[in-house]
């Protein structure tokens, strides 16, 4: 059984998957930082710093007026946190666009790297057989 486990772990697919997961985790950190530290502040400039995270409705329970979402949750009240959900959707869309653009750029670079070297343009080899026959016909007509 130990040998079977060693064979399973040593297979290329498992190792590829492990490397993919590790790189995916690192990539997630980069994309999250890019969105949170670079893109969201720029969007905040255009939207006037709108943040919907603390928008919620109290379904049941007592929550002090003006309490943040976190404070409202701490009271144990039943909260409908539509603002947090809306911000999660907005962040998802931003992250999806950023990932799409990065993947698109990587694919473009990859396709350029795989292209064969520039092929020399075709050099004309002279008139075709049809061109020669037309020339002969025209010269015979002129006689």
UniProtKB/TrEMBL annotation:
Major place of residence: membrane
A Pfam family per the record: MscL
Topological relation to the membrane, as annotated? Multi-pass membrane protein
Task: Name the GO cellular-component terms.
Answer: plasma membrane
Task: Give its localization.
Answer: Cell inner membrane; Cell membrane
| Transmembrane spans | 12-35, 79-103
SUPFAM superfamilies reported in the protein's UniProt record: Gated mechanosensitive channel (SSF81330)
A molecular function (GO) held by this record is: mechanosensitive monoatomic ion channel activity
Task: Supply the InterPro entries for this chain.
Answer: Mechanosensitive_channel_CS, MS_channel, MSC/AndL, MscL_channel
Q: Which Gene3D superfamilies match?
A: Large-conductance mechanosensitive channel, MscL, domain 1
Q: Keyword set for this entry?
A: Cell inner membrane, Cell membrane, Ion channel, Ion transport, Membrane, Transmembrane, Transmembrane helix, Transport
Describe the subunit structure. Answer: Homopentamer.
* Family membership noted in the UniProt record: Belongs to the MscL family.
* Job description of the protein: Channel that opens in response to stretch forces in the membrane lipid bilayer. May participate in the regulation of osmotic pressure changes within the cell.
Query: PANTHER family recorded for this chain?
Result: LARGE-CONDUCTANCE MECHANOSENSITIVE CHANNEL (PTHR30266:SF2), MECHANOSENSITIVE CHANNEL MSCL (PTHR30266)
Q: What is this protein called?
A: Large-conductance mechanosensitive channel
- Give the source species: Pelagivirga sediminicola
The primary gene name is mscL
């Amino acid at each position: 059984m130990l040998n079977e486990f060693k064979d399973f772990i040593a297979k290329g697919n498992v190792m590829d998957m492990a490397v993919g997961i590790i790189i995916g985790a690192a990539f997630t950190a980069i994309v999250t930082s890019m969105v949170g530290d670079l893109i969201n502040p720029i969007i905040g400039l255009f939207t006037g710093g709108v943040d919907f995270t603390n928008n919620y409705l109290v379904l049941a329970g007592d929550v002090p007026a003006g309490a943040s979402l976190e404070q409202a949750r701490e009271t144990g009240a039943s909260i409908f946190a539509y603002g947090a959900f809306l911000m999660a959707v907005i962040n998802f869309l931003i992250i999806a666009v950023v990932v799409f653009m990065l993947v698109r750029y990587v694919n473009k670079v990859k396709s350029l790297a795989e292209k064969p070297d520039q092929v020399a343009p075709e050099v004309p080899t002279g008139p075709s057989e049809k061109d020669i026959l037309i020339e002969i016909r025209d010269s015979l007509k002129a006689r």
